[in-house]
Amino acid sequence: MFKEKTPLVSHIFTADPSAHVFNDRIYIYPSHDIAHNGEDNDDGDEYQMEDYHILSMDGDSDTITDHGEALHMKDVPWVSKQMWAPDAAYVDGKYYLFFPARDKDGIFRIGVAVSDKPEGPFTPDADCIPGSFSIDPCSFKDDDEQVYVYFGGLWGGQLEKYRTGSFDPNGTEPAKDEPAVCPKVALMSKDMHTFAETPRDVVILDENGNPLLAGDEDRRYFEGPWTFKRGDKYYFTYSTGTTHYAVYAVGDNPYGPFTYKGRILEPVLGWTTHHSVLEYRGKWYLFYHDCELSNGINHRRNVKYVELKFNEDGTIQTITP
Ligand code: FUB
Questions:
Q1: Closest CA to 274 of 116, 147, 156, 128
Q2: What is the per-residue pLDDT for 12?
Q3: How does DSSP classify residue 307?
Q4: What is the pLDDT of residue 61?
Q5: Which is the closest atom of ligand 1 to the Cα of 33?
Q6: For 263, which DSSP code?
Q7: 33, 87, 223, 290: which is the annotated catalytic residue?
């Protein structure tokens, strides 16, 4: 593996890398940032992405392949704008791309698209996943082949607007001394096009077994979930958003609860901290992004990776970019 800590590609802006190993090759499912001169705001209007390009690489060269446009929003009937952070899963000979976008009413939903190849092109379903909401879907396939999708993001991602169980356009975050908003998880149905259950809360606990509080911005969930298994432990990783850390929590099953353990990555150049973790040829890697190529413009990001190291007790060594 080469190119560690350097932008993997520079001909397009890329972000939110979801990395998987398929056929002994690393496939990266990133957002494709669009350069424009609009202002940033708390709704994420600066993230105007319209399509996805899948990247791939192997362990034997420094060549990164951009497989070209894999899916464009003009081909997705339910989407109005903002194709944000995607992920993919392989099940029974097919590759499934999960992606969030705003529907025609401006509400974020999650869609599915299918391909015979990991790099696409992907054919989208005509409608979004029924009952889906918010952003940042990530998939996790457990040892029993069951696939779970985790999702949710505050502010622009609208997660705090579902605290009553349905969409409240005026919904806000809890008070600082109340439990934080939880990310969600749902088991996928066997055909991978629908949730097999109503999404559940992913509860993240502190060292005393209490749910993290909304005011605990160094540790509470903001966006960018990722789940992986190491040994018999399930690791749930995520971004703390306003404090810009990538952090992790550990549990005993895919639904949690997960207990907060520490930081994976200190803040990078740029506001967002979206990442993924994968094992490849016996080593672990963190895929992440920063804004090096644009000198810090938040919506012009570039994907990178770095080796991730574990301590003997399963804790993760914090990376300082
Ligand atoms: O790329 C748009 C949004 O920015 C993602 O959905 C978030 O995770 C953040 O990286």
A1: 156
A2: 98
A3: E
A4: 86
A5: 1
A6: E
A7: 223
